[in-house]
Amino acid sequence: MTIRVILADDQALIRSGFRVLIDSAEDLEVVGEASTGEQAVRLSRSMRADVVLMDIRMPGIDGIAATRVITGDDDLAGVKVVVLTTFETHAYVIESVRAGASGFLSKSIEPVDLLDAIRTVASGNALLSPKATRALLAEFATTGAAPQIPATVLDVLTTRERELMTLAAHGLSNDQIAERLFLSPLTVKTHINRAMMKLAVRDRAQLVVLAYQTGLVRPGNSID
Known about the structure:
Helix 2 (37-47) runs parallel beside helix 3 (63-71). Helix 5 links the parallel strand 5 and strand 6 (127-128). The chain is built from ten helices and six strands; from the N terminus they run E-H-E-H-E-H-E-H-E-H-E-H-H-H-H-H. By secondary structure, it is an alpha/beta fold. The chain is 50% helix and 13% strand. It has two domains: 3-138, Rossmann fold; 146-213, Winged helix-like DNA-binding domain superfamily/Winged helix DNA-binding domain (Arc Repressor Mutant, subunit A). It has a six-stranded parallel sheet with strand order 2-1-3-4-5-6, with helices on both faces.
């Protein structure tokens, strides 16, 4: 199955480079290019892509606003957005995740890692660069905002789902969780997907945010 990708960046040279790279992979295909946020939204609706690589600074509505429109459209529920930018600031990371982005990566990412990132997000998993993850966690550590949502929203989860959500919020991958709990990676993925469905969150990034907002996980807490 080919993963359909839209490139949204106001610099044609950058779009051209990404197109060559992505189209070189047998399982990936660029189906559209956008130079503005508005174009990215229109293409997402017309091309039914799987993943949108979204720059932040573009004319008109920026990439974060465009991401918010795409992720807020029920008809585009299957479209995942990866924010790809030169500016890995705390504010951009937080705004992107809150807007519904499934990933936040630097444009300096290695080519092979970018291709893997597209596949990861298309499969339903979230992906944040290490710097972006630190920024996200630092936000909760410094603002004192968590918990913002009643912990009772987690009552729909089983004990196992809550346990896996906690580990995911600490940054562990499915494979790492599986090894830690002596489960198969598929079992871990199934439990986490069920938790996301019950809590009505789009992806793993939103699940992590919710873990902090409900106080299930607090900055500085150890999982050991």
